[in-house]
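DATA SHEET
Item: assembly model
Revision: 1
Owner: S.N.
Input lines:
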Amino acid sequence: MELSKERAEFLARDFSRGFIAYCGFAADEVKRGYFRSSLRLRPEHRQQDGFVHAGVMAAMADHTAGYAGFTLIDEEHQILTIEFKINFLRPAQGDSLCCQSRVIREGRQLLVAESEVFATGEHEEKETARALVTLMAVPGAKLSAGDQVLGLRE
Amino acid sequence: MELSKERAEFLARDFSRGFIAYCGFAADEVKRGYFRSSLRLRPEHRQQDGFVHAGVMAAMADHTAGYAGFTLIDEEHQILTIEFKINFLRPAQGDSLCCQSRVIREGRQLLVAESEVFATGEHEEKETARALVTLMAVPGAKLSAGDQVLGLRE
Amino acid sequence: MELSKERAEFLARDFSRGFIAYCGFAADEVKRGYFRSSLRLRPEHRQQDGFVHAGVMAAMADHTAGYAGFTLIDEEHQILTIEFKINFLRPAQGDSLCCQSRVIREGRQLLVAESEVFATGEHEEKETARALVTLMAVPGAKLSAGDQVLGLRE
Amino acid sequence: MELSKERAEFLARDFSRGFIAYCGFAADEVKRGYFRSSLRLRPEHRQQDGFVHAGVMAAMADHTAGYAGFTLIDEEHQILTIEFKINFLRPAQGDSLCCQSRVIREGRQLLVAESEVFATGEHEEKETARALVTLMAVPGAKLSAGDQVLGLRE
């Protein structure tokens, strides 16, 4: 399945809503199986030591991976994160963060993406986090069903 | 080492700074090797489908685990997150989130904590995420050294 | 769905095949949503420093979690591991290992289990590893389809 | 620090001991920050469905990552696995497995490596698993101290 220009533009706009808009993450590039986002760093992204909070990088790695997944599914489906794991490679400083996510397993239902987060300062860019993210494509109609999503038995 | 009343109160106040204050997370209970936090849910915590964004739960699981770690180290040290993994057990809805973190490996340098995130609605509380978090205690003086933190060779 | 005595006995026998039999893992207890296994330690379970190899504990945590999952699905389905994460809490020594796995998310398709591995010596038992395991229930008939399993697109 | 020919040869020999020799894993290539290993598949590497057991790939991903770490530390230190996470991308079949591990964070104490496991059949090679592995370099002298390793408080 190709990624149409319209779909790519829709996903770039759709990327920044709710928590993601509140944090300031923005879409930068959309390709089939690939998504790149960025964040201009503000004081509210820091933790107690002045570095970027791990939670900021985790949210970015997760959400960008999810949208890399969206480039591979049709408009009837939504992407949910099943789980992810993230390694923080060095404390993140600088002016902005950038995240690249690539789908490394393309399934109809289950997708796996890898995200790399980079911090950019005046003179350099360094990788600050690497994540593996497991995603699931769910029919959009199912999402209104709340706990029924993903076939939970309760 | 005991956890003094003063230290516990300091950690409860210190918990909500920078990104954590911006998101609205608050400390609820502090014990030796244990930390509990909560979040009153607002529209900016949601993702595109109306559920709480995975990044919110990840930030909460990570930060609460870190402060569970702080209850076991002295004031000369800081806690950094090395990595974490989080499973999302069901979509999170309701009025508020609560997170409990317990240290399951207490080391001088390396600590491991487990976090459980619960969503609370009108009539019920359900576990929505479970995380394993690897933490490192670092001498506070080292943190100003930026990339030298954690002994990175570059 | 109840777990019948016959099904529990079948799963206990079925547990030790192929790689698992080769390593020497055995089933100890089977309950609905729960599985316990053990391993009598031999020299071939060690790594270069004399401790139990991390791979032994990982295989045990994964396989025992999978069988905890089997107690919750019908006989037409098989369990596959989607991914897992394991923290090694201390070097493992002693005479034997024991692993307890509990399903913490019961879904029709997706299950999540937590595994705890303990090393037992003359006088004590200590937790040596903790894992979170994501499992998928797949119709048995699909498994012969190889790469088609899990809906891989290629 | 360079990787001497003698050290590389030593690590290639040292790779296959204990559990790793028992499973049949062998070193194929050793470079600074990189290690490649392989496994000729035998019936005892399978699980109940005929595919390679997840535990085999996990042990391979972990151990090969550890030896990629060994190429970056001096002979006075040993490598221990702190934790790892592995995603299984497709069921593994074929004649042999190959694993490539690269260190993506080089620290004096903490190292992070990424492992890719491939299954090779008659006509093709496919990635079957991807792992992120957190490693710690520990002074060899400390390893005899058992539980004191890694500064565990007990």
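QC remark: Helices of chain C lie at 5-14, 18-23, 54-70.
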